[in-house]
Amino acid sequence: MSASRIDVGNRLDRRGASPSREATPSARDFVLEVSDFSVHYGVDANMVRAVHDVTLNVRRATVLGVAGESGSGKSTLVYALTRLLRPPGVISGGRAILNVSSDDDPARVTPVNLTTASERELRRVRWSHVSIVLQSALSALNPVRRIGREFDEVLRTHRRAMSRRERRRRAEELLALVGLEPDRLNRFPHELSGGQRQRVMIALALALDPELVVMDEPTTALDVVTQREIITELAELRARFGFAMIFITHDLSLLVELADEIVVMYAGTIVERASAGELYAAPRHPYTLGLLESFPPLHGERRELTGIAGSPPDLAVESVGCSFAPRCPFTMDRCRAETPPLAPIGETGRSVACWLHATPSPVPVPAALSRRWTAPVGPTAPGVTSR
Ligand SMILES: Nc1ncnc2c1ncn2[C@@H]1O[C@H](COP(=O)(O)OP(=O)(O)OP(=O)(O)O)[C@@H](O)[C@H]1O
Ligand code: SF4
Ligand SMILES: [Mg+2]
Fold first, then answer.
1. Per the count of CB atoms within 10 A, which of 98, 121, 228, 379 is most buried?
2. Which domains does the chain have, with CATH numbers?
3. 312 pocket-lining for ligand 1 (C-beta < 6 Å)
């Protein structure tokens, strides 16, 4: 792997980076720090508040899962964070800092403000330090270009010292990482299956050994077996190369297997944040509970699949109070009048945006939101068990 920057030793150096003058302590711990981040589409009466006051950190070499129904703002959040958002989308507040390791000296970490970075700075960090796998692999790949050219272009642009032969060898290595034969480089996207295309996208995302890989529903369009295979491969690749990952999906049960920490989004905001095991074993927000009751459980006690009644709010209409109130089985008067902040509860480092958990509590917390459903579970992949 002489031409490759992906090797475990290199990655371990990055993870074990010693203090640098430029780095703050958190910059070494977190590859991405996002605070009070907001995004809207359009202006005036038609404005859609797609993401509102999101604060989150992604710890190095860990997986942050993002869950939520369709339209909750998941894609908008990561498109805006990576500055791939197209008009009429606008970042309307907050900031996002990518803590970039130096190529020459992995011990040096330099913060890059993605919200204000110039196009030149963005070109420097995209692919090399942060890469993204888009929701639809078919539309992300150029239909009139063979797969090999996609790899060649990325490597030629960012690794100028590599010869043509080295680029080809590197592309073959990357395909092998995701279980594809080298001859796939000669194919056009439409000649590959959905799973193969998605694997190509994952291989491309890893081409330059990024510190952070963003996956926007990479497996949603695939059958369950292929979905399982890809999730297992992703978990193995992550464990091997040590990149951090933001993984977006509707399927909270799937995230529990893969993620270290999960944020649950509803109507553009984070309503619950917890370790994957805690979130699954003891959901505390009524929406998280509803999401868990929408998918078959992985472990422990069986839960009835009831789903969530109603539909998400229209984000073009400014609402007062808790945005989940019209669908929540526990709504109180206060919920319709005041918006609950995302606040820490308990001692497990979790945060919840729900008045039921306010201190002092206005009412006893309902049993479904105070009990523990199962023993805490952690990520199980690699070697993911089937549901
Ligand atoms: N170009 C656009 N113009 C106006 N509104 C938009 C645009 N793109 C997205 N939205 C709105 O922003 C909100 C968030 O959309 P987003 O695509 O981020 O949701 P999502 O959580 O990724 O959904 P899904 O799970 O279906 O992919 C939705 O209400 C959507 O209608
Ligand atoms: S704040 Fe009220 S409406 Fe919102 S989730 Fe909590 S109980 Fe339900
Ligand atoms: Mg989306």
1. 98
2. 1-129+210-387 (3.40.50.300)
3. no
